[in-house]
Design goal:
Helix content: 40-55%
Number of helices: 12
Strand content: 5-15%
Largest sheet: 2 strands, antiparallel
Order of helices and strands: HEHHEHEHHEHHHHHEEH
Distance between the termini: 84 Å
Radius of gyration: 28 Å
Shape: elongated
Number of strands: 6
Strand order of the largest sheet: 1-2
Number of domains: 2
C-alpha cells in the first residue's frame, strides 16, 4: 500500500514537471512567433558596426520586430547569429518569425552603410573616443585632422577664424550614414558639410547683429552649450555673457577652464581658476581663442537671439537648474546656499 502511494506521488510529480516543461515550451514558442502574423510592411533595420547581439535584440524589440529581446537573443545564440552578424542595412517585417529574422540577418546586407550618431556639445576629444568605440578609426587619427588646419575642397573656414586654427567647434553632432572603411578625414568632411548646410547661412546672416564675427558666434555658442541644457536657459546664459562682454567683465566660465585643463591632460572636474591658458576666462577678458566643443543648432540660436536681462551672474546647479543674479553679492549668496563655494 505504501509502495502504491509512493508510485502515485512520483507519477503526479512527473506530470507536474512535464506540464511545467510543456508550459515553458509553449511560452518560448509564443515569444519567438511573429509580432503581427499578417503584417509584411518592410522595415529597414541598420546593424551598427561593433554592435552586440544584446544591443541589436533590444533595438529589434523597440522597433516591434521581435516580442521579447531576451528570449530572441538566447534563441539567436543557439543559431550562432553573433558570429555571423555584419554591419549594414537589412529589410525585416513584423510578420517574420525569429527563425526568418535570423536567416535575414545572417545573409548579406542590402547596403554595408550604417548609422553613427555624434551628440552635439561634445569636445573633439570626446567625439574621437566615441568614433573609436564605434570601430571607425583610432581616436588619435581623428584628433589629428580636427586639430590641424586641414584643407577640404568644399568647405572653407568661417570669417574671423584665426590663421592655422583647426576645426574644433565645427565637427557637427548629428547622425551620419557611413561605410565600414571610412577614414577620419572623410568623416570630418561629412561633419563640416553638415555644419555648412545647417548653420553657415544662419550664422553669416546673424553674427553682425550681435556684434560678433561668425567664428566668434561658434566660440560663444560652445560655451553656452556646455553651461546650460534647455533652450530658455541657453538664451538667458547667452544674455549674461553678452552683458559681461559689453561691460568689459571677464566671462568667468568654469567650462572654459575645464577645457583648458583637458588640453593639458587633466580631465578632473575640479576647476583651477588660476590655470595658465588663453582659454581661461577668469584670467582673460573677452572670448577664448576658439570653441571648446561643437555646439548644436539650439546653442547657436541662443547666441544669435539671446534673452535680454539685467543679469551678470548665473549658477549652474548639479540638477540642471540655473539660478541668475544681478549683483556679485546675490551670486555669492546663491553659491553659499547651494554649497558650491
Amino acid at each position: 500500500m505504501r509502495h502504491g502511494r509512493l508510485w502515485l506521488g512520483c507519477l503526479l510529480l512527473l506530470l507536474v514537471l512535464l506540464g511545467a516543461v510543456g508550459g515553458a515550451a509553449l511560452y518560448l514558442r509564443g515569444q519567438l512567433a511573429p509580432v503581427q502574423a499578417n503584417q509584411h510592411s518592410k522595415l529597414l533595420v541598420t546593424v551598427r558596426k561593433g554592435e552586440s547581439l544584446e544591443q541589436l535584440s533590444d533595438r529589434l524589440q523597440a522597433r516591434g520586430v521581435v516580442r521579447n529581446a531576451f528570449v530572441f537573443r538566447l534563441y539567436a545564440d543557439t543559431k550562432h547569429l553573433a558570429s555571423q552578424l555584419r554591419a549594414g542595412k537589412f529589410e525585416l517585417d513584423r510578420g517574420m518569425s525569429a527563425d526568418e529574422i535570423i536567416a535575414v540577418l545572417k545573409g548579406p546586407p542590402l547596403s554595408q552603410a550604417f548609422d553613427v550618431t555624434v551628440p552635439d556639445g561634445l569636445r573633439a576629444a570626446q567625439e574621437a573616443n566615441l568614433l573609436q568605440s564605434d570601430g571607425l578609426f583610432p581616436a588619435q587619427r581623428y584628433l589629428q585632422v580636427v586639430n590641424a588646419a586641414t584643407q577640404f575642397p568644399d568647405v572653407s573656414p568661417l570669417p574671423g577664424t584665426p590663421a592655422g586654427a583647426g576645426w574644433e567647434g565645427l565637427a557637427f553632432g548629428d547622425t551620419y550614414q557611413v561605410l565600414p572603411k571610412i577614414t577620419a578625414r572623410q568623416f570630418l568632411d561629412k561633419q563640416l558639410e553638415d555644419f555648412d548646410l545647417r548653420l553657415r547661412t544662419k550664422i553669416l546672416a546673424g553674427a553682425a547683429a550681435v556684434g560678433l564675427t561668425p567664428y566668434q558666434v561658434v566660440v560663444l555658442a560652445s560655451i553656452v552649450s556646455a553651461e546650460a541644457a534647455t533652450p530658455h536657459d541657453r538664451g538667458l546664459v547667452a544674455g549674461v555673457f553678452f552683458n559681461r562682454l559689453h561691460a568689459g567683465m571677464a566671462l568667468q566660465s568654469d567650462v572654459t577652464v575645464l577645457y583648458a585643463q583637458s588640453l593639458a591632460g587633466d580631465h578632473s572636474t575640479e576647476v583651477d581658476t588660476g590655470f595658465a591658458s588663453p582659454y581661461n576666462t577668469y584670467l582673460h577678458t573677452g572670448l577664448p581663442p576658439g570653441p571648446i566643443d561643437s555646439p548644436g543648432e539650439a546653442a547657436i540660436e541662443a547666441v544669435l537671439h539671446p534673452i535680454a536681462s539685467g543679469y551678470f551672474y548665473f549658477l549652474a546647479l548639479p540638477d540642471g537648474k540655473v539660478e541668475y543674479s544681478v549683483t556679485l553679492a546675490q551670486h555669492q549668496q546663491q553659491v553659499a546656499e547651494a554649497g558650491e563655494g
